[in-house]
Amino acid sequence: MRPRPSWGWQDAAACRGEDLVLFFGPDGERQPEREIRERKAKEICAACPVRTDCLDYAISRPEKYGTWGGLNEDERASERRRRMRRANAA
Ligand code: SF4
After folding, report:
1. CB distance 80 to 62 below 8 Å
2. Which of 40, 41, 58, 63 could join 67 via S-S bond, C-beta 3.0 to 4.6 A?
3. For the CA of 68, the nearest atom of ligand 1
């Protein structure tokens, strides 16, 4: 069983009060709009004081969708693989 996640870091999240669509996107979103939306979300993440906590959380759970810790789904999958390789090499 996985340890229960700590959500305390969310109290300081820069995205509090922001529209969730900015981080998760609407249904049927096309690539050009997605890129613009993700860029805006990542700008908020870049100034977020709990970015590392957010990214660590999203990497450690099966969070398939959305922008977390400044990374989109594909970027998180790459980061997850990178961390696994690093852990296996240690
Ligand atoms: S890193 Fe981004 S998604 Fe995560 S809490 Fe901060 S603003 Fe929200």
Report:
1. no
2. 41
3. 3
Alpha carbons 45 and 33: distance in angstroms, whole number: 18
Q: How many structural domains is the chain composed of?
A: 1
The H or E element spanning position 13 is none
Q: Hey, whose CA ends up nearest to atom 3 of ligand 1?
A: 68
The whole model's pTM is what? 0.89
Q: How confident is the model at residue 5 (pLDDT cuts 50, 70, 90)?
A: low
Residue bearing tokens 């977390």: 68
Ligand 1: residues within 6 Å at CB? Answer: 13-15, 23, 44-45, 48, 50-51, 54, 67-70
Q: For residue 24, is it within any domain? A: yes
Summarize pLDDT for 23-80 with one digit per residue, the tens: 999 999 999 999 999 999 999 999 999 999 999 999 998 888 999 999 999 999 999 9
